Amino acid sequence: MSHSFVIKAGVLRFRIPIRSETTMYGKAFAPEYRGSLGELSVNTSLEDVLAKAVEEQRRAQLSGDAVELAHTGLAVAEASRRLGRVEEAERAWKDSYRAARRAGDRGAMAWAVWSGGTLARQRGDLALARRWLATAAELAEQGGDIVARGYSLAGLAETGRIQGDYEAVGRLHEKLLAEARKRGEARHTVWALEGIAQMHRNTGSFDSALALFEEAAQIAGDAGDDRGRAWALRGIADVRSAQGDPEAALALLTEAEVLCREIQLVGALAYNHKMRGNVLYRAGRYAEAEACYSGSLAEFRAMGEPRGEALSRLGLVKAKARQGRAAAETAADLDVLERALCDIGLQHAEAMIGKARAELGVAAADAVPAH
């Protein structure tokens, strides 16, 4: 039996099935680990993935196997990216692409460019991310790699969602969810549910967001997808906090943090810590929130993640303002943050900062922040 919710945001309206009782999901797998690395689990620690990938990469270099070089380069790129080592990830995905091109393997070329597009999004270059991910989808189509095509389209959908372009990507999320359900692909089903849930949450539909996040957490848990479950628990915590239950939210974030640390998900852990700041801030625990935002800010800076950095800075400004910081300094910092968020390409940046100004009772300052 299927059910559906409707998102309404301006002219945006789309239905998405949130549960299909007849769908059977297989165990989660990691298609980005290919060739000699195909036996690695989605939950293999990233340091272990990197060590194994580098070892196999050396063997491929000695044998001159270009396809295997492409596969191992991709794994190096993805492990490095998820560990926050962005320069290494940049070199590795390009090496993977060059090896795949030498081999004439368009599917492997698609995976490499997908990794590059995902890295560009992580680094805050959303326009470049869209270009690379669109190219990856085309290469995957040409190479007949259905999974690479799905990942590339999912990357495009996620990039648009992060930008706040729900009108453009809502239907794509819905389509990818339906395809993932049909094939019983747990990881992609979880990803799509979480993306749609986030749009529900951001448009104020908390009950439907909670149902979607909870389904994602259940499927991820049953499929052994610790990564997907960690993100889903973070989403549930956010909604529970917004509904006025901070203690339940903090417990969920603690559970998710354990999963993040086991796999060494640096980015997910940083976002977990930022969300802990959000939960504490909503609960009026401003000094604790400030400490969490300071921690996540350092984490995002270390991994070169400008969107997370800007959002942590916003939380930090708000927490300090609630503890008596001068209004002029708060206003000046919000001006700088508005420009930073707009530069990243977030369509809702002005509305986000406008909401913060109204909440804190400050006006646009157009001044240099105090240090």
Features:
disordered C terminus; two-stranded antiparallel sheet; 74% helix; mainly alpha; single chain; Serine Threonine Protein Phosphatase 5, Tetratricopeptide repeat; globular; 371 residues
Run of helices and strands: EEHHHHHHHHHHHHHHHH
Strand order across the largest sheet: 1-2
For the record, the CATH class of the domain at 31-181 is Mainly Alpha
Summarize the biggest pleated sheet: 2 strands, antiparallel
Q: Which structural category do the helix and sheet elements fall into?
A: mainly alpha
Give me the CATH superfamily of the domain at 31-181: Tetratricopeptide repeat domain
Stretches where pLDDT is under 50 for at least 5 consecutive residues are: 1-14, 367-371
Number of strands: 2
CATH topology of the domain at 31-181: Serine Threonine Protein Phosphatase 5, Tetratricopeptide repeat
Rounded mean pLDDT is: 91
Query: What assembly state would you assign to the polypeptide chains in this entry?
Result: single chain
Rg over alpha carbons: 21 Å
| Broad shape | globular
CATH architecture label of the domain at 31-181: Alpha Horseshoe
N-end to C-end Cα span: 58 Å
* Total DSSP helices: 16
Amount of beta strand = under 5%
**Helix coverage percent of residues?**
over 70%
